[in-house]
């Protein structure tokens, strides 16, 4: 490595250290995003507040409510006694569901024809759908328990054997912890977003201050300037990757089952795309605000179409086709498979090849355009 390139890299590191905002964005923001998304951006539904209208007030109705209390999904927050109260609580959003137990619940239970009603607030489809399926499971489980007790009291075998039993196994994430899904995605978003934003705004900042012209008139070649400006952000982004991996593993207990070298290598391929987008934005913008908005135009589709928050399979066909031109899509498949499944490169060769093509292509085109503008 020649002395000119080393000087550019050293200058860039000094500039980063002297700029507290850039330093905070590199070192603090990734960890902050990890904790915010790890805890807040979850698909797990817990402690759903519900209202109860128990018109029976019998031991049998209390047993049913105990079954709902024992589940971690519901929290009995209100005891009501009228339709007006029920409607008011749901309209104000204080209760997300309501259980209505009829007056003759105990008698109908003895006759084998008991029914209870559950009203759900469908304005939030995620909470409503989860609450619906969970309520049905609790009801089925409680009904099975009652049948076993009735069989035991009548002198028959207490064993109740349903005609069909579905035995399930969950691989890689037995507890279905949403953090296992979110945190690998955070790694991809950090690499993709921070590298592109910092690269674009940093180079434009040099142009705003007039220092880029000073660099151009020096004996430094254009490729040395490009490599020297980008190298510090590559190093710091890979450092961020290791920090997020460590925090995710030790704090959120997300496993790292794949090869660490392969994780770093594929992360480097995504870096090429992020750096290339930032470098391209720097050639079209004259201010840092313009550069940020240009980069954000690429980040917004990536957030929604790459599978970071929403499954690609659930999207319309047109959007699924659009997602194929987003490099982050391939990296999220890679990083989640490496962390959770521990697969090797052979199982991910299509995604790795696609990510490499995008990375090299975007970076090469952006570097050529940047050098042309310098010339």
Summarize the structure.
By secondary structure, the chain is mainly α.
How does this structure look, described?
With 375 residues, the protein is mainly alpha-helical. The protein has 2 domains: 3-41 and 177-374, no CATH class; 48-153, abc type-2 transporter like fold. It is built from 15 helices and 4 strands. The chain has helices spanning 3-18, 20-27, 29-39, 59-70, 83-91, 105-111, 125-153, 179-209, 211-216, 222-250, 260-284, 288-305, 317-323, 327-341, 349-374; strands at residues 48-54, 74-79, 97-101, 117-120. The protein has a 4-stranded mixed β-sheet with strand order 2-1-3-4, sandwiched between helices. Helix 8 packs parallel to helix 11 and helix 11 packs across helix 12. The protein is elongated, with a radius of gyration of 28 Å. The model has no long low-confidence stretch (mean pLDDT 80).
Radius of gyration: 28 Å
Work out the helix count. Answer: 15
Number of domains: 2
Outline the low-pLDDT stretches: none
User: What is the helical fraction, as a range of percent?
Assistant: 55-70%
Strand order of the largest sheet: 2-1-3-4
Proportion of beta-strand residues: 5-15%
């Amino acid at each position: 490595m020649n002395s000119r390139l080393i000087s550019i890299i050293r200058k860039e590191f000094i500039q980063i250290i002297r700029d507290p905002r850039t330093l905070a964005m590199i070192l603090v923001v990734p960890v902050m995003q990890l904790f915010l998304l790890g805890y807040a951006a979850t698909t797990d539904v817990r402690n759903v507040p519900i209202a109860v209208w128990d018109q029976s007030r019998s031991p049998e109705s209390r047993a049913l409510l105990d079954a709902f209390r024992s589940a971690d999904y519901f929290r009995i927050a209100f005891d009501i006694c009228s339709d007006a109260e029920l409607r008011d609580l749901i309209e104000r959003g204080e209760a997300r569901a309501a259980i209505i137990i009829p007056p003759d619940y105990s008698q109908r239970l003895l006759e084998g024809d008991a029914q209870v009603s559950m009203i759900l607030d469908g304005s939030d489809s995620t909470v409503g759908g989860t609450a619906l399926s969970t309520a049905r499971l609790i009801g089925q489980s409680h009904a099975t328990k009652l049948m076993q007790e009735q069989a035991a009291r009548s002198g028959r075998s207490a064993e109740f054997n349903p005609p069909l039993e579905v035995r399930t196994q969950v691989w890689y994430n037995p507890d279905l912890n949403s953090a296992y899904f979110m945190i690998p995605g955070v790694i991809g978003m950090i690499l993709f977003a921070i590298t592109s934003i910092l690269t674009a705004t940093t180079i434009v900042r040099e142009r705003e201050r007039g220092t880029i012209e000073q660099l151009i008139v020096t004996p430094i070649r254009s490729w040395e300037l490009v490599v020297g400006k980008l190298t510090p952000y590559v190093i710091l982004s890979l450092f961020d990757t290791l920090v997020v991996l460590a925090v995710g593993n030790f704090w959120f207990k997300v496993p790292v089952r794949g090869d660490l070298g392969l994780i770093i290598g594929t992360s480097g391929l995504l870096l090429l795309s992020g750096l290339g987008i930032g470098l391209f934005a720097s050639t079209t913008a004259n201010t840092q605000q313009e550069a940020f908005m240009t980069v954000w135009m690429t980040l917004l589709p990536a957030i929604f179409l790459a599978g970071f928050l929403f499954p690609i399979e659930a999207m319309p066909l047109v959007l699924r086709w659009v997602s194929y031109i987003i490099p982050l899509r391939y990296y999220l498949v890679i990083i989640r498979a490496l962390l959770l499944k521990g697969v090797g490169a052979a199982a991910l060769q299509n995604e790795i090849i696609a990510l490499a093509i995008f990375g090299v292509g975007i970076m090469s085109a952006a570097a050529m355009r940047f050098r042309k503008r310098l010339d």
